[in-house]
Design goal:
- The complex is a heterodimer of chains A (about 80) and B (about 450).
- Chain A is an alpha+beta fold and about 80 residues long.
- In chain A, about 20% of the residues lie in helices and about 10% in strands.
- Helices cover about 50% and strands about 10% of the residues of chain B.
- Chain B has a five-stranded mixed sheet, sandwiched between helices.
- Chain B is globular and about 55 Å long.
- The chains are: A alpha+beta (about 80), B alpha+beta (about 450).
- Chains A and B meet through helix 2 of A and helix 15 of B.
Chain lengths: ~80, ~450
């Protein structure tokens, strides 16, 4: 599950960039990503600074609020050592 | 600002073969090395990545990976001890006594602290840096920036640092904090006095003069804070004075008045000096590198490219050169064994120039896939709290410069550019330029 603990806006500065990437087969992935939601402008700008680890379904984990409908979500966390 | 400007001399521009010699003899305390440090940094990274600088009595951490390691362990590598050891180093008791006697108190920098204390302060300070605050400030900042640039743009020549970068940044910080306009000259002086405390270049006489400046600054800020305590406004002083966060158990955290004074002082200085340095560096690049000028001209309206432009500007010319840590126990770092109590300088500017991390590090390339790996904002729990605001400010300034200025050229030979003597930042002291006004 994604680490949602740092969930304050502007949290990129807080610990390190944790980019999570929704995982699964293409159709499942799209469905999950729709539930998780797209990044807003500010988050996109942050993700855009780390294009080497970002994919189309990447989000900053601190910006994903855990809700009942996300139960079962699997994510891939970007390598810790990079940032 | 540049009363002690350093000339650039040949010693710092050593050829690769001379780098070993350079390392043995040179010091970051040397203003010539401070002005043109890249050969010195390269020599450290290659031959002695955690290098003891005897003149500074500090270990210089030069490699990207070692800086990340330090940043990820804030208990072993203490900011509290490192910063306060560096402050007025060698004269600290006298510095403190002057502030206690004449400055309303000695207020240790609450944010320059270690967990768990730091965690509480950081949460409270973040109140002033929400996305909401940054967004709300942008239109007003754009207006202030445009007004000042309009007064200069028709003149054809200016000092990009003294006439543009410094007054521009001060006006913006005055707006953000809610201070009084017309204080520009004083704020500039106060700013220099505070940053000199970690620059390691002041003698006793200068320390005493700077301490008196800081006393004056503190009295001014305390007055403003008391006003906001009674009647809050939409500004960052009010944010700090009235900062509250709720704990899990429902209890509330607030800042003590002494903590708040130190934070307002830190906001004023950190948001002022570093941003002015970034704008000075921007003008330097625009005047000396056609590809950077062309890119800005072509892309000023493209938000995505501009975000990347600002990031690459901060990587190539980081305003903050190096900040302090102190070891709290014996530890090995980058193959070097450090004793407890060792004072370290994390040389961000060196890590940003490391070619294994950023290939062709001197190239200005907004398409780098790892643009965000630069360490100009530090990292870990101490990563610059104002980074969103800083990025926005520099972006707005770059865009407004692009709208008004073209054909920016140096009005002096490049080797006559002087830098402020300090280990903490790399700041152009004065940058005479010529330009033409871009027709609307």
């Amino acid at each position: 599950m994604p680490d949602g603990a740092a969930g304050r806006a502007m949290a990129m500065g807080k610990v390190k960039v944790t980019v999570t990437d929704v995982k699964g087969e293409t159709h499942a992935l799209e469905a999950w990503f729709e539930k998780v939601g797209s990044p807003n402008d500010i988050e996109f700008a942050m993700l855009d600074m780390v294009t080497e680890v970002v994919r189309d379904t990447s989000r900053l984990s601190c910006q994903i609020k855990l809700r009942p409908e996300l139960d079962g979500l699997e994510v891939t966390v970007a390598p810790n050592s990079v940032y | 600002m540049d009363t002690q400007s350093a000339p650039a001399t040949g010693a710092a521009n050593a050829a690769p073969g001379d780098e070993q010699v350079l390392l043995a003899k040179a010091s970051l305390a040397d203003p010539a090395i401070q002005a043109h440090p890249n050969a010195f940094y390269r020599a450290m990274r290659r031959d002695d990545p955690v290098h003891y600088d005897a003149q500074l009595n500090s270990w210089l951490v030069s490699r990207h990976e070692d800086i990340l390691a330090v940043q990820s362990d804030p208990i072993t590598f203490s900011v509290n001890k490192g910063y306060h050891e560096q402050q007025a180093r060698g004269m600290h008791d006298e510095f403190r006594a002057i502030l206690e006697r004449e400055g309303g108190g000695y207020f240790p920098d609450a944010i320059m602290s270690d967990p768990p204390y730091h965690t509480r302060i950081r949460k409270l300070m973040e109140n002033a840096f929400t996305a909401h605050r940054v967004k709300e400030l942008e239109p007003r900042i754009r207006e202030v920036v445009g007004d000042l640039l309009d007064t200069v743009a028709g003149q054809g020549r200016a000092d990009a640092v003294r006439d543009i970068a410094v007054p521009l940044t001060i006006r913006v910080i005055v707006e953000q904090l809610g201070l009084d306009h017309g204080m520009e000259e004083k704020i500039s002086r106060w700013s220099v006095a505070v940053t000199a405390q970690i620059g390691r270049m002041q003698n006793r006489e200068q320390m005493i003069e700077n301490a008196h400046q800081i006393c004056e600054l503190q009295h001014y800020l305390i007055g403003k804070m008391k006003e906001r305590e009674a009647s809050p406004r939409e500004d960052m002083i009010s944010d700090i004075v009235h900062a509250r966060v709720k704990n899990a158990d429902g209890s509330e955290e607030t800042l003590t008045f002494a903590e708040a004074v130190s934070l307002v002082r830190a906001l004023l200085i950190a948001g002022n000096d570093t941003t002015a340095t970034a704008i000075g560096n921007l003008f330097y690049l625009l005047a000396t590198r056609v590809e950077v000028a062309q890119l800005l001209k072509d892309s000023a309206a493209d938000e995505r490219v501009m975000n990347r432009f600002v990031e690459e500007l901060l990587r190539v010319e980081p305003p903050v050169r190096a900040l302090s840590r102190m070891t709290t126990c014996e530890v090995e770092l980058g193959g070097t064994k450090l004793p407890a109590g060792a004072h370290l300088l994390l040389v961000y500017a060196s890590a940003n120039d490391q070619d294994e991390v950023f290939p062709s590090p001197r190239a200005f390339d907004v398409n780098r896939p790892n643009l965000g790996r630069h360490v100009s904002f530090g990292g870990g729990i101490h990563r610059c709290v104002g980074l969103a605001l800083a990025r926005m400010e520099v972006k707005v300034m770059a865009q407004e410069i692009a709208r008004r200025f073209m054909d920016i050229r140096l009005a002096i030979p490049e080797d006559e550019i002087r830098y402020v003597p300090t280990v903490a930042t790399r700041t152009i002291a004065s940058l005479p330029i010529t330009f033409t006004r871009r027709s609307a």
